[in-house]
Known about the structure:
The chain has about 400 residues and is mostly beta strands.
Amino acid sequence: MKLPDPIILPFAALLVTASCAAERGERWGFVATLGDDTTSVERVTRSGDRIVSEAIETAPMVVRRRWEATLAPDGSLRRWTMDTHIPNALPGETDLHHEMELSGGEIRLVRQTGSETTDRTVADPYARTLPWNAFVYGTYDLLMLVAHDLPDSTSIGQYFFEGWSDGNIGIARLTRSGDGTVTLNHFGIGGRAHAEVDEHGRMLSFSGAGTTNLQEARRVAEVPDLDALFTRLAAEEKARGPSPSLSPRDAAHAEVGGATLSVDYGRPFARGRSLLGGIIPYDRVWRTGANAATHLTVTAPIRLAGVPLDEGTYTLWTLPGREGVRLIINQQTGQWGTAYGPAHDIARVPMETETLEDEIEQFAIRVDPAGPRLVMEWGTFRWSSPIEVGPNR
């Protein structure tokens, strides 16, 4: 299923309606994209030690955020608050409030949603600790700024204020090169991101191409009227219904002989991006979908691409190359898609490949019982492997 058109916010159109509001202090913004789609727009204002950010996101639901940070004289974070509004969320889940206060080697963390409030204080073992969210690029900018005077690979704490690791504190490490590029490594993005910064540590651009967050972001001088943008996007989302995920989870099921085969996997969209050799690099193991690893479950013994598999669950990976692709069958299960363990491989076998005339926008895996074959399709490629059912001994 193709993402609905209202999610697509062309960059040029965003800047046509630049806000005329003015506040004292330095002002800038960030525009983030995923392929052809704009996924967030942020406006940041700094006056002295106070930084205020407002952001509109569509990744995947429409969200409006406002956060405020106060810096200490040494440039570290002293206090941070964020208010999040999700207009089309379920009742009781439309508004969230977060607070973070650092003092005397301790961090106070407050989270409010609906009628529920958590308030806890934890030790701060890191040189500096900051809030972080994968899709709020003002927090990446804050990270670059606050870490600017720290040595490379210093452990910087990151409080995950929303998302799959909500409430936990992870670790980020930055490595600088002489050309203004900073490499960011932390478990929240599953890989290494790269940012360009100026001589003051201000982030000019961000690339998630080497991570599970494939978005790109860049600093801009002007941003649109966020009030008008939010009102329009929220109304359009309400009319069509919210999108559940950028890469929704799906499952393929089929009866082949006496066996039931089920494939559970994530379904990313192409979004105008280059696939093979682009977001799917050559000669690197691909999770074969998005997010959690792709799982195959069989209820009776089969042979997949000639490889005998007993009843049970496996994970499927692929290794694309310029001359073909190999299917990797792995016995480790339950892991995220970045946690491939080659020591658990059962086999690596060639797949048959075809080039399609019509492009497929959303990645798909299916079991063709007529073959029978396991089929993977996206863009203009089709990969497949034969399935045989019967005793393996």
